[in-house]
Specification:
Blueprint: H1 2-12, H2 23-30, E1 33-34, H3 38-46, H4 55-63, E2 68-71, E3 77-80, H5 85-106, H6 111-124, H7 133-140, H8 146-158, E4 162-164, E5 174-176, H9 177-180, H10 189-203, H11 209-216, H12 220-230, E6 233-237, E7 240-244, E8 258-261, H13 266-269, H14 281-284, E9 285-288, E10 291-294, E11 296-300, E12 303-312, E13 316-323, H15 329-346, E14 349-356
Parallel strand pairs: 13-14
Antiparallel strand pairs: 1-3, 2-3, 4-5, 6-7, 8-11, 9-10, 11-12, 12-13
Amino acid sequence: MENYIAHRRLLNQGIIRPRQRRAADVVAWLGAVQAQEYEPAKWALGLRMGDGVADDDIQRAFDAGRILRTHVLRPTWHFVTPADIRWLLELTGSRVYRAMSSSFRRKELDTRTLLRGTAAVERALRDGQHLTRAELAERAGLAMAGVRLGLLTMYAELEGVICSGPRRGKQMTYALLAERAPGARRLSREEALAELSRRYFSSHAPATVRDFVWWSGLTGADARRGLEINRARREEIDGQIYWTIGSTAAGPARKDLAQLLPIYDEYLIAYRDRQAVPHGPSVLGSASRGQVTFQHAVVIGGQVAGTWRLARKPRAVSIEITALRRLTSAERLALDKAVDRYGRFVGMSVESSIRHAAQ
């Protein structure tokens, strides 16, 4: 039944048969999209928007503020929409802060220091200012840098004071959330819980309670309440209970479709239970100085079949695929199509090669 679940997730997430043509619509459908790796995260949106969409299209949407980037759900950056950013922060921000509390203590960032620093940051960003982190520290008169400064800006994000501004060259900027998302909605906690549950169990289904708890950062009780409010549909598959809200994506599963998924893509990172689509350090990780570094995933027929690396050249990109098993001729042809699609997305010619992990 693994292929059945995988196929439904590919459809519901819009990876095959894309549902939306705008970056903001993809983010809204998914609820939030993990985005600490900014360039790969743009590709995560692009592959869900169908052919003909370019990296520049998503960059323009980001610079214009049609999608924002902030810390929400878990202690990492996510893309969110301006309409959703406030209620998402109000629902999940306190739990992110709780998860990071030991880091704040280690860097001697007590509540008084955080509040004073956030007030200084707010003053520095008034009247439409967009500042890099270093510029922000200088303008706000903050005697901190590195991780300590990063934690302060994270706190200001969780408090709903700042969020992403437009990118300047290769540097990110910060802006006031109130100026970047003046129409942001406010929801009661019950309404927000119902909305986030509906988004997740519509776009990521079939999924388990444990999956949603991992993805959202909320409690098991919150997850069950969200399912109850939405009258979610329950189904047992191979001894595991999965939930779906809304219509069920249909159509026969195809084993000849291949995708080049970016690192931390929602198709893999959004699930705690990995029975249906096995992955993890043993599959996607490479050891480096005793640590595991996750890589981009090659997915064929809904299952992880390898990894891929990207190297940029002046006028082209090079993609090196490492297959975890022998590939059929049809699978190699499907991979060629996936590589070509990525090339069209970045607007560059692509050179690709395939090797096997055992080599």
